[in-house]
Fold:
Amino acid sequence: MNSQDDEPRDRLIAAVASLCTERGYEEITEKEIAARAGVPRARMAELFPGGKEDCLVAAENKILLDVVGAVSQGYSADRSEWDNVIHGVHRVLQVVASIPDFAYLGYVFSRQMAPGRIREINETGHHMLEAMLERGWAYSDSTEQPGCTALGVLGGAQALVRRELAAGRAEQLPEILPECVYIATVPFLGQAEALRLARRARELSLPAAPASRGR
Structure:
């Protein structure tokens, strides 16, 4: 796809995300999506031959790629593994907070009301994040490694995100960083260390204090 397609395509996937958030997938039409995006329907048909479902697939892929990219951006070879976890989760929460319609699509809609193709994308992302979390066993003293641990961690963290999104508090998502870090680390490191990391995460999630002005 050439660069001339990027702007109308981006507007269309933003439109389908916002309309699904407002009314649900079954209730919206391609005409409404095109009108919300300010793109001619003929152009939408060129960009998304499969209609609104193709458009929705592109929107779901966006939130998946943005979340996976955020995890990568939170990593630094200069930090410890668990500091990278804190920064990675923080970055994910910041990204999700910045695109609330897409976040609702990925964390709420795709689990409950979406067509099968959308659920498949969501499951793919879920498995990728589970695989990343499984690395935590390399830093655990536990002799047992239940196979469902990463699934439970991810489910708990996503439940917190869905709660905030459903309550209309997307912009406050970075504030739940300590809770997410605790959930992500306690099965691997135990309660005492997880609480310590959650306290460190709380410092990162607090708004920076305004600089004092010289007199």
